[in-house]
Amino acid sequence: VTSEQLRDLSQELQRFLLQYEFGLREIETKLSILRDEFLSLHDYNPIEHISSRVKAPESLVDKLRRKGLTFELATVREQITDIAGVRVTCAFSTDVYRLFDLLTQQDDVTVRSVKDYIAHPKPNGYQSLHAVIEIPVFLSSERVSVPVEVQFRTIAMDFWASLEHKIYYKYSAAVPDGLLDELKSAAATATELDARMERLHRQLHGDRS
Ligand code: 0O2
Q: What sequence ranges are listed for the domain RelA/SpoT (predicted)?
């Protein structure tokens, strides 16, 4: 590969990833509008935290290798749906589902897939509601449809997932059995805490929010 070809490739990749960056901005705007309107109508904030990222090229390449895919942009676009990722953390699981509904029902949003790991937690205890949605982005000469993976979860689920993620990487995926059991039990405690906090919240606010 000549250095000129490398430069062209790198430019092509940058342009490709930029579309995902634009997709993220669209979703972030939608979420912040929902949050601000909710605040103004109900004096209540349904979102604790929003974070987003475009997958780093190295971790994209890792994922392609893991899945045995070639680095062709058309294949990448079709097969890797979490290049753009947004994480929405809410205090309560009712807010998780409420925001999911409000976002996915918008008429410029197309839902590609949904995985409800809250209703059906993963065997390790992981809980979150995942949706891959497509959003139109208007560029100077075309309209592109950009997939964004949105993960909705409660603070307790997020706390659990970030620790589990660290443990998983520390042990390079070979986590000792004892720790796996502890994690599973901690996930059950998180679920219980979510239910208790939700009950308290209801007592405080009734069904107002
Ligand atoms: P990262 O570093 O967060 O980007 P896929 O591999 O995405 O094609 P999969 O695994 O069926 O297909 O997708 P799924 O189940 O929707 O999970 C995708 C993302 O959810 C992961 O992205 C994690 O962010 C999160 N996730 C899923 N399972 C777990 C889990 O057991 N523990 C934790 N902590 N997070 C989880 P990546 O690409 O794996 O990682």
A: 52-175
Atom of ligand 1 nearest to the CA of 79: 8
Query: Among this protein's residues, is 149 annotated catalytic?
Result: yes
Residue among 113, 165, 179, 184 to mutate when testing ligand 1 (max atoms within 8 A of CB) = 165
C-alpha span between 83 and 91 (Å, rounded) = 26
C-alpha distances (whole Å) from 89 to each of 4, 70, 82, 92 are 44, 34, 18, 9
Cα–ligand 1 centroid distance for 126 (angstroms): 10
The two three-digit tokens of residue 24, written as one number: 């993220």
Residues with CB under 6 A from ligand 1: 82, 115, 122, 124, 126, 130, 161, 164-165
Of the pLDDT bands very low, low, confident and very high (cuts 50, 70, 90), residue 207 is low
- Give the pLDDT mean for 144-154: 97
- Which residues touch 83 (CB under 8 Å, ≥6 apart)? 17, 20, 54, 55, 60, 76, 147
Q: What is the H or E stretch that residue 113 is in?
A: strand 110-116
Q: Please give the ipTM for the structure prediction.
A: 0.89
CA-wise closest residue to 102 among 116, 115, 88, 91: 88
Find out whether 84 and 52 touch, Cβ atoms under 8 Å: yes
Q: Do 205 and 198 touch, CB atoms closer than 8 A?
A: no
Which pLDDT band holds residue 181 (cuts at 50, 70, 90)? very high
pTM of the entire predicted model: 0.92
